[in-house]
Structures are given as C-alpha cells and as structure tokens.
Amino acid sequence: MAKRQFKAESKRLLEMMINSIYTQKEIFLRELVSNASDAMDKIYYKALTDEELVFNKEDYFIKVTADKEKRLLTITDTGIGMTKEELENNLGVIAKSGSLAFKSENESKDGHDIIGQFGVGFYSAFMVADEITVISKALGSDEAFKWKSKGADGYTIVSTEKDAVGTEITLKIKENTEDEQYDEFLEEHRLKAIIKKYSDFIRYPIKMDVKEQRPKEGSEDELEEVVEEQTINSMVPIWRKNKNELTTEDYENFYAEKHYGYDKPLKHIHISADGTVVYKAILFIPESTPFDYYTKEYEKGLELYSSGVLIMDKCSDLLPDYFSFVKGMVDSEDLSLNISREMLQHDRQLKLIAKNIKNKIKSQLQSLLKDERDKYEKFYESFGRQLKHGVYSDYGANKDVLQDLIMFYSSKEKKLVSLSEYIDGMPEDQKYIYYATGESIERIEKMPQTELVLDKGYEILYFTEDIDEFAIKMLMNYKEKEFKSVSSGDLGIEPEENEKKSDEEENENKELFEHMKNLLSNKVKDVKASKRLKNHPVCLSAEGDLSIEMEKILAQMPDNQGVKAEKILEINVNHEVFQSLKTAFQNDKDKLNLYTNLLYNQALLIEGLSIGDPVEFTNDICKIMV
Prior knowledge:
This protein has 626 residues and is an alpha+beta fold. Helices cover 36% and strands 21% of the residues. It has 20 helices and 22 strands. Strands 5-4-3-6-2-1-7-8 form an 8-stranded mixed β-sheet, with helices on one face. Strands 15-14-17-16-19-18 form a 6-stranded mixed β-sheet, sandwiched between helices. The chain is elongated, with a radius of gyration of 36 Å.
C-alpha cells in the first residue's frame, strides 16, 4: 500500500493554512459538520433532476460519537459519499473544495445552499488529531474506500467495506500537552457546547448518544444512568422564518437565548435582503446600558453566520462605533465559511452588508424618535452619549448620519428636544442655536449668562455631559444655523437701550476697566461692561473656539497641557456693585483691588472653577465685613 503525496502542497503550506485561518481549535468540529451537511445537500440537488432518486429529509442526519478510551472522535453522515477519485481530488489537494465545484454546477435558490466554499476546513482537524481516517461509500456505488493520513507527509487510499451510503470520519485525538488539553474534544458536554455554538442551525439533525440520569424503575429515590440518542441542534433559525410568523415574544426569547443582554430589547429589526448582496439579519436595540459599555473591555460586534454556520462571535466590522450598542446576528450565503478576521476586513460583500445595516439602524432610530418618543428617550438615556461621541470622533466624518438623532434638554420645553424641533420653534429674528454648558440642569438655570437670551424669548439647549460641546463644535451648524454659547463674546442679539448704556458706561469708565484688567492681567484677557447681565453683578465669558467648560474638561485629562480659554470678566453696569467700583476707583485704589479680586473669584465660582488662593479669598471677604 503505497503512500501518496499531496498534490503540489507541502507541510509548510498545511501548517500555514491552519495557523492563519483558524484561531480556535474547536473550529474543526464546525468544519466537519458543515462538510457532512454539504454531502446531504448534494443528494437533494441530484434528486431535483433524477426522477428515480427520492429525497426524504427524515433519512438524513449527522452522528457524533466519542470513545474516550481509544481517544477516537467519529463524525458520520448519510450524505452522498465519495468515490475513490473524489477522495483523491477533494482530500488529496489542500484547498480543493468539492462543495464549491458542485455548487457552481448546481445553483439553486430554494433554501438548500452548499456551505463549504474554501476547501480547507477538513484539514483543520489536524489541529486536534494525530491521524484522520475517512471511510466513504458514494451514492450508486457498490465499493467503499478508506482514506488515511497523519498530516502533510501524505495519505493512503484502499478498498474497504461499508454498508450504507455516506461518509465516516474518525479522528485519533492528540494526547494532552502542558499547553493544550485535547481531552476536552472527547467530553460529551464540550462537544454538545461546540455544536450548539457553531452548528445549531444546520438544517439536518446532529445526533449524539447522551448520558442521562433518570429514576430507577420500581424505586422512589434511586437513580440509574441511561444512554439515549438526542438531537443536539435546533435546525431552524429564527431569521429564516417569515416575519409574519413571529411574535414580539419570539424575538425576546431569541434575545435571551443568545445572551445578548439581561434586559428586554427596546426594538428589533428583522432584515431579509435580496439585492446586490443577499443576507438575513436580526438586530436588537437594547433597553439598558451593559455594565461595561463605556469601558475599554466592552467588545462590539454582531454574530456572523455563513448559511447558518457561525463564523465569528463578534464581527466588529459590521457595526460603526457609534452604533456599537446594537446586538444581533447576520447570516449570508455570500460569505466564505472559512474566512479569517484579516480577510473579512477587505471583503466587499461584508462592507455592503455593514453599510445596509448602518442605514437600517439609523432609519429605525428615526422612526422611534418620531413615533415612539417614550421609547426613544429611554434609549437615549442609555446610549445618547455614544451618538454624541460619534458626531465628535473621526473629525466629524459621521455628523451627517447622527445629527438628526441627538437631543438636548430645552430651557423652554423642560425636556429633551432634537435639533430639528429646536429649529422649528425658533422666532424669525433668532440668528443662532443657543446653548449653555454646566454640570447639571439646576446649575445652568442659575447661570447669569443666560439672562439676556431668555429675556429675548429664545430657547437654550442645556449641555450637561462633557462630550456635548465638543460634539457641537464639530457639528458647527444645523440647517444653516450656527451654534452659539451663551457665554461667548458676541451673542448676535441686537442692542437695546440698556445695552447702549453699557457701551456709554464702558467708554466713560475706560480707565476703571483698564485698571481692573491690569490687576488681573495673567488671569483674564479683558474686563468690560456686560451686555448680557440683567440681575447678576458679574460673569465670565470666553472668546475663541475654546470655552470655559471645555477648559475644565481638558484639565481633567491625563495628558492635560494646561490649555486655557480666553476669559473676559464682564461687569453689570446697571448693578449697585458697579457704583461701588466707580467710587473706589476715585477714592481708594486698595479697595478697588479688593473688589476686583472678589468679583473675579465670584465669577470663577459661578463657572465651577477652582479659586487660585482660597485663603486669600476668605480674608478678602473678612475685610469687607469689618
């Protein structure tokens, strides 16, 4: 019995193929089960054109059997089998796919798709086996043949006996090493778990002899161990069913069974696409935030299947980061079963699927916002921060996708509003979309800077999260309306009589403001009469792109470089305090310096900024009191 050599292949190629395509050894069972499913599909195809051949689906199954003592794992199928020539061609050439060749000759669109499309899956078994034996009897043949190999050094093919048509693959499982425990691939519970994980939706039953405990006959408290044949896989995936057949409860049960989350999904999206790319998907928008969602440990991605066989637990390429909260799965016949993560990154079909999924998610969220406001607000409470981060990240590349989905608390509505709703409520004379930043709604409502804008009857959006202003700076405008902070130097509001008085007072008291500016020269860029203050004596505003709130956030960063906003100290010339400043300027410069430092520190406190010298500040207060 002469040993034959693999055609044009080497040991190096075999090792490279296994190491580059498969990252987990358990994958081998998925590959062998998929090949067995293909073998039965081939009989189905032949029955379509052969009137003498009757395809009775109940006759077709896959059996997985483990023998711990002999370290043998056997996968048996009742499929089409292989002739000697097919064994030579399909197993004698690494990366030769009999399934792919058969598929190209027998295209069918009635649900029976040949899974194996890359031809390397069979050899993944060498990751766990020292030796592989294949016994096969082809449909319509009286002969059976045995193919045996220990790896890249070659194989043998001899005649043998086999009663039924089909293929039996037996692996001699490797001995344990210090690094690897190969015994697990002989354990009943482990084999069941692998089948459920990867091959649960193979359309034929995958059977195993399973040990069970049951009450012993004639005894009330004694148990006996019995072995019974069980079907391990569920066979019919929910995503292949018609949407009209499924209820909300069906989707919720699937969500729970797949451990997508401990909550109930807020909304599901069931996709059946038959256009440029063919795929099915079930996506879920969760109700609550996973405990690790806003941490580095969180891993985004959808389950990816090829014709019902799991390729990847979490395919991150299917979801943009800003929709990373979405859970679910995608199944496509256009993807290769054996494709690696590296190959997926460049797969054109996958990119088309990802683009379609992105659009579907956005459309669903817009529908929620429009038609089910309560649900959307519940979703936004959990994941609004991620949407706003998506606007800011990648230099605003995704702002057009997300701008209609973000919301902020409104001073007028006293609830969350979208940017579109804000625009719809704007008076004709309003030039900008106004916003105010602060740690909470309560603190923002007390901000002196909001007085003028609110008095004009304009709505203010409240930014209470650290990402808010950064996102809006990246967005720049919405429907041709620019964003304007209530703390910015120019509010774009036409001056009224009291504001004209501010200009006059500033001109008349130019020396006073100059003195105060010089005293605070290393702290503020300027001191001037305020046009925005009504009741409060003092506030800080900012010039330039960096706001005071952004300065506070950047100061908390690990790589803080001490970036400061250009602060302006604004004085309310209509407040009694201003009269005290003018009197002190004329009669007592020391008192003026005291008042200036007090007002500056008060403005810092209003903004939530720390005072440079708290002791000096308290001493200054005491000086006023005595």
